């Protein structure tokens, strides 16, 4: 081989190596730029969260200053209003709050004198659960969802909770104990408590920890003990004592369920100047049994020798919010648990509100769990999600096949029979099913396993354990989501289904022999009226037939549903603001 040909080949090889290195550098550079972009977006998101956290932490530091005697309650009220009115500038000027002691911080706060004229509400929730620190039931997601929505609209929200032994503190910021003595009244004596403060999602949280009665909240469960009244009446009284002692002047004290309903009569009878218990127990938190054991106050409507704490909350509250899919009239008539006379008398103060869901997590246009995102304006990604779901579960990969998602927290015998009937009817039409349990309850998992054994159909897939990413993909890839109930404050399955372009169908509607499940009272919420009119009487067979025989009409129905906002920020938040506004004018 001539020497020059060998050199040319060598140079050509070197050129190829250099080009490969260049391509590699370009790829690495793109990965680096993408990573920088992700970090910048994360930084911006964290910056927004940090601003809210700084604002909440400032207000909690003011509480500490009052309790330690550094400032008066009057000055504290002024400082709080200043912080609420000065949103962004406060966060900018007090970004290094953790490096300053209370004296230094107070000196700087006193230099802030500009006040905004915009009216905002200061709301304090006194409650017994809240996501993510103590997620027990529907109340936990409700408190967090509504509080975040209200805060996003410029209102200031705080939450007072018992300091349970089993708190989940993974997402808590700035947890600290206030080094001051705080006493509250209970059973004829003053008892010392520890006060802890922190923030979650920018919401200021105060934990009250009894010292003498330390066993009240150091137990395995939150509810279900013989002394629950004593436990929560102690907490309710301590919460009001804390609000008074710290100098807070909230526009609204929002109480929840019977456990904190005693705050109502406590506030009006003491501070202005399960839930059935013996009248003399009211004296534990400083109330006079003889004044309250009356038909127009706390006396139970049926068991007249007892007092009803929940009734007291209704009687003594300015407004009563009922979270339900049902109308006010139906709640009073049929779902009032013996409180029908009380609710009827106080019906003008009742407001019905729907639950909501977190639109920042459950949104197909931003959902990072999906292989391709989509929206009502561009639905191509939904077909991609369906095929990806089918492939992952070993089903026939065909976007034209009807896919039904089923996610349940509990499964009763009635549910099982209805589900079997639904699957048998639909399987004749080539419909695919994916079941996933949303509960750690062993009986639920056993029920689903039994159903799997009985059905034995290649088009019916069961997922044994809950997976967060898979739950998002099931909502995105399904045409229909089976729901145990449209009134679902814990899991919000119907709301999420609508958001992801899947029709919610009730499991108790079998074929065309259905029965109405939602009343059509005009006093219902927008959400209840919508879901009643559009999906309330839709059986699975009807949905399948419409998808196959009239796809354009079905598509219009689904697209219209996707554009509606049923998140915490929408109707639910608006009804709360309306209630708070009406109270401020009383």
Structural overview:
The chain has 21 helices and 16 strands. Helix 13 crosses helix 16. The N terminus is likely disordered. The protein has 586 residues and is an alpha/beta fold. The longest helix has 65 residues. The strands form four sheets. Strands 1, 2, 3, 4, 5, 6 and 7 form a seven-stranded mixed sheet that branches. The termini are far apart. 39% of the residues are buried. 47% of the residues lie in helices and 14% in strands.
SSE layout:
Elements: H1 3-67, H2 73-85, H3 87-93, H4 102-109, E1 122-126, H5 138-152, E2 156-162, E3 173-177, E4 182-186, E5 189-200, E6 203-210, H6 228-245, E7 252-255, H7 257-261, H8 263-271, E8 276-277, H9 289-292, E9 307-308, H10 309-316, E10 320-323, H11 328-334, H12 340-345, E11 350-353, H13 380-393, E12 403-408, H14 413-427, E13 432-437, H15 442-455, E14 460-463, H16 468-477, E15 480-483, H17 493-499, E16 503-506, H18 526-534, H19 540-549, H20 551-563, H21 568-584
Helix pairs in contact: 1-2, 1-3, 5-21, 6-8, 8-10, 13-16, 14-15, 19-20
């Amino acid at each position: 081989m001539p020497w020059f040909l060998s050199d040319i080949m060598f140079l050509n090889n070197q050129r190829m190596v250099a080009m490969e290195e260049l391509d590699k550098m370009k790829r690495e550079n793109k990965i680096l730029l993408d990573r920088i972009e992700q970090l910048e977006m994360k930084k911006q998101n964290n910056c927004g969260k940090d601003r809210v956290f700084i604002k909440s932490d400032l207000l909690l530091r003011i509480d500490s200053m009052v309790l330690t005697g550094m400032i008066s309650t009057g000055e504290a009220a002024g400082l709080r209003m200043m912080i609420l009115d000065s949103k962004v500038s406060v966060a900018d000027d007090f970004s290094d709050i953790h490096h300053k002691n209370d004296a230094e911080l107070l000196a700087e706060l006193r230099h802030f004198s500009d006040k905004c004229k915009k009216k905002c509400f200061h709301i304090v929730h006194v409650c017994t659960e809240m996501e993510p620190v103590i997620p027990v039931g529907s109340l936990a997601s409700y408190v967090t969802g509504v509080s975040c929505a209200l805060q996003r609209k410029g209102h200031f929200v705080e939450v007072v909770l018992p300091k349970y032994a089993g708190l989940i503190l993974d997402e808590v910021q700035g947890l600290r104990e206030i080094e001051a003595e705080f006493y509250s009244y209970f059973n004829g004596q003053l008892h010392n408590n520890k006060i802890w403060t922190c923030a979650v999602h920018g919401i200021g949280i105060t934990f009250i920890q009894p010292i003498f009665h330390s066993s009240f909240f150091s137990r395995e469960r939150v509810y279900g003990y013989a002394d629950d009244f004593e436990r929560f009446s102690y907490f309710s009284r301590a919460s009001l004592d804390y609000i008074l002692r710290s100098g807070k002047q909230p526009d609204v004290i929002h109480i929840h369920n019977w456990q904190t309903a005693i705050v109502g009569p406590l506030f009006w009878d003491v501070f202005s100047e399960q839930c059935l218990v013996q009248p003399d127990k009211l004296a534990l938190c400083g109330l006079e049994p003889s004044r309250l054991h009356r038909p127009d106050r706390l006396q139970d409507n049926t068991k007249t020798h007892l007092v009803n704490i929940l009734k007291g909350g209704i009687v003594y509250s300015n407004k009563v919010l009922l979270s339900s899919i049902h109308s006010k009239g139906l709640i009073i008539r049929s779902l009032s648990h013996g409180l029908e006379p009380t609710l009827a008398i106080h019906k003008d103060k009742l407001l019905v509100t729907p639950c909501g869901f977190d639109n920042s997590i459950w949104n197909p246009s931003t959902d990072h769990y999906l292989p391709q995102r989509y929206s009502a304006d561009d639905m191509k990604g939904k077909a991609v999600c369906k095929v990806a779901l089918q492939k992952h579960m070993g089903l026939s990969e065909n976007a034209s096949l009807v896919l039904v998602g089923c996610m349940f927290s509990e499964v009763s015998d009635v549910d099982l029979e209805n589900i079997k009937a639904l699957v048998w009817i639909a399987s004749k039409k080539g419909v695919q099913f994916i079941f996933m349990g949303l509960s750690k309850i062993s009986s639920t998992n056993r029920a689903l396993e039994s159903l799997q054994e009985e059905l034995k159909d290649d088009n019916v897939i069961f997922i044994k354990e809950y997976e967060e990413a898979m739950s998002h993909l099931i909502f995105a890839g399904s045409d229909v989501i089976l729901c145990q109930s449209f009134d679902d404050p814990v899991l919000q399955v119907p709301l999420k289904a609508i958001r992801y372009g899947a029709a919610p169908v009730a499991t108790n509607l079998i074929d065309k022999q259905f029965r109405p499940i939602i009343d059509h009272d005009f006093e219902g919420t927008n959400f209840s009226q919508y879901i009643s009119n559009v999906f309330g009487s839709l059986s699975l067979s009807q949905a399948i037939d419409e998808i196959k025989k009239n796809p354009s009409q079905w598509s219009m129905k689904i697209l219209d549903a996707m554009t509606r906002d049923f998140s915490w920020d929408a109707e639910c938040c608006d009804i709360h603001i309306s209630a708070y506004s009406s109270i401020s004018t009383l």
